[in-house]
Amino acid sequence: MGVRSALDLSGYYDHVDAREGHAGAPASDPRLLVSLWVYSYSRGISSSREIARLSEYDPAYQWLTGMRPVNYHTLADFRSTHRESLHELFVRVLAVLDSEGLITMERVMHDGTRIKASAGRDTFRGKESLHAHLAKAEDQVKAMEDASEEEIAPE
Question: pTM of the prediction?
Fold first, then answer.
């Protein structure tokens, strides 16, 4: 699936002030920060401090960051600056991943009831199914944003 080629991340570069050949610390690449947030949301992690901690030792995060831990403040500032566009991006990416069966929108608690599924492969290809996946992804992202709301507030 050509998800990567379909994502336009150019708007995330508008806030990058660091430029090659000028004094100052290099900026974190927005593609990296978006990747960290999308991956974290797919794993149920919505805390920038937790992502920063995981980037120090977790192999998946180390692979994404090239073995260079990312500061939690950088992650929180990026999410705060791009709040609306990241929300929309998270919803769309999680809906696609969920519809392809690559992730599940698991909750912390469930009742354990087993229900026999009666669905063919084409069941998940229709417009109604797509809207259902988008709604489920929207709920998941909203719940994660609500859980980390206090982290975004300035200290």
Answer: 0.61
